[in-house]
Amino acid sequence: MPCTLLNLCEYDTQKLVKIKNVRLGSLKWTLNGVILMFICIMMLWNKEYQKYDPVQSSVTTKVKGVANITIPDIGEVVWDVVDYSGPYQGRNSFFVATNVIVTNQKQGKCPEVLPHGKQCQTDKDCEEGLSNQLNHGVQTGACVKLDIQKKTCEVTAWCPIENKRNPRPAILASAENFTVMIKNNIRFPAFNYIRRNILPEMKETDLKGCIYNRYKNPYCPIFRLGDIVSEAKEKFSEIAVEGGVIGIQINWDCDLNHIFHSCLPKYSFRRLDEKESNRTLYPGLNFRFARYSIVNGEQQRTLFKMYGIRFDVMVFGKAGKFSIIQLIIYIGSTLSYYALTTMFLDWLIGTGCYSKEAKQNYTERKFEVIQDQEECFLCVSFVDEDQLRVVKKSDGKYNGLRLYQAVPSQTDFNR
């Protein structure tokens, strides 16, 4: 009983039933043709016959440009790449300053600025020696004027404290015309293939005069900063005020087969940071650095708060080459799609598209139940054991059951 309930004593096998019908035959080959066409198109479109290897990459950059600018409290100065490039920004990145706040400072006492300082009315409102991570110095305990209407607690610090208002328009807006050369070396270790974005056919004279252009010169490795920002769908004059982050994407989609050999870089650009000031507390990008000097025996410093654009170079890609193993795997995985034709036609025959008689006839021919042929006696009559000498198997069969007959002994014949 458990064997029957759990279907453990049953075996299912496929049975081939040929239905001679013009409509079903035409529909079968039509569906098989569509599936074959789909398999071939996807194989060629996605190049499923190839073995792939991801790219390994290194990037170096070199920025060039000179700007003549006027900085408040300093005057007219000329900045070159050393001044506006800023500190090292990380792997595959470079920074270009676009705006700056300069403050000449020396050690002394001055009112703290709001909102970092505490607004006060008398000296009792200020605590001597108090400081925290938001203050620019240590409170002296005095309440002094910040402006005509407000008073804040005095601090010992580098004075005067930095002005928080960044200039508009940006002081280094001319950085739009700076250029950067991006050198990208790639390698596909599985195929032992090495290449770089400075193509072999390029000469030194070609590099000196070329500027990247998506339509006219898409493979030149020298980029104008203003073009990079515009390709990212941004305005340089706007992003230069508070700074931002721009991504330079280099995509290598290489076919290393001899007939269809192709391995060229494709550049794209996008902004990576949140540009809306009303959607983020700290928009843009900035950092500070100082230059120290001794004037009349007193140490002074010039504090620079630099706003600018950080460019992150990101390299993606893969290389493919024909592989018979990948082709066999793809073909084997797609053969199962032909089962969809059988499933659809079986469903079609089982629906109301055919008569009840045709549906029943097809079902009876497709599914058949066979019982196991076990040998047993058709019937056994009472026989005295003492008289029974031989039991002989009959040659005849009846409905899968073997017939046996009892043969009397010699004693019976003598009676």
From TrEMBL:
MF terms (GO), sorted A to Z: ATP binding; extracellularly ATP-gated monoatomic cation channel activity; purinergic nucleotide receptor activity
Disulphide-bridged cysteine pairs: C110-C159, C120-C143, C126-C153, C210-C220, C254-C263
GO cellular component: plasma membrane; postsynapse
Chemical reaction(s) catalysed: Ca(2+)(in) = Ca(2+)(out)
Keywords, sorted A to Z: ATP-binding, Cell membrane, Disulfide bond, Glycoprotein, Ion channel, Ion transport, Ligand-gated ion channel, Membrane, Nucleotide-binding, Receptor, Transmembrane, Transmembrane helix, Transport
Binding, ATP: K62, V63, K64, T179, N286, F287, R288, K305
Pfam families the record matches: P2X_receptor
InterPro entries, per the entry: P2X_extracellular_dom_sf, P2X_purnocptor, P2X_receptor
Family: Belongs to the P2X receptor family.
Function: Receptor for ATP that acts as a ligand-gated ion channel.
Name of protein: P2X purinoceptor
Organism: Carassius auratus
Gene: LOC113107487
